Amino acid sequence: QVQLVESGGGLVQAGGSLRLSCAASGRTSLPYIMGWFRQAPGKEREFVASISWSGISIAYADAVKGRFLISRDNAKKTVYLQMNSLKPEDTGVYSCAARIGTVYQHWGQGTQVTVSS
User: Fold this and answer.
1) CA-CA distances (angstroms) from residue 29 to 61, 86, 100?
2) pLDDT band at 94, cuts 50/70/90?
3) Which listed residue, of 31, 41, 76, 79, carries a Cα 20 to 30 Å from 51's Cα?
4) Stretch 12-22: mean pLDDT, rounded?
5) Where are the alpha helices (DSSP H) in the chain?
């Protein structure tokens, strides 16, 4: 099993920045692909970004391209999401997740991000 704990959320004004962290523990020796997702009030959870074990393969949702940056430090067992130029529509609960195959198997509890206009 893998446990994931997010941190770094908070309240920020539009145009500001936040850096989220996702710390992994447990069975972390496998080459997990890590992803960030978000869920706004009244909406379904949506994909934000993902990064391969090596860090070479990265993907972003169109809504965050050019503003968000995903990275990972395998030695620290931590994945990061640097969020810049934040918009009110970026508000939501941000969760990290881990997968080996095509389905994300492990999820964190999430951290709240609120962007005020």
Assistant:
1) 27, 34, 11
2) very high
3) 41
4) 98
5) none
Question: Which residues face 21 on adjacent strands?
Answer: 7, 80
Which residues are CB-neighbours of 77 under 8 A, at least 6 positions away? Answer: 23, 24, 25, 28
Q: What is the DSSP letter of 65?
A: T
Measured distance CA(75)–CA(95) in Å, rounded: 21
CA 15/CA 20 separation, integer angstroms: 16
Residue that has been written with the tokens 């994300």 in this structure: 104
Residue 95, H or E segment: strand 92-99
The answer to whether the CB of 3 falls within 8 A of the CB of 26 is yes
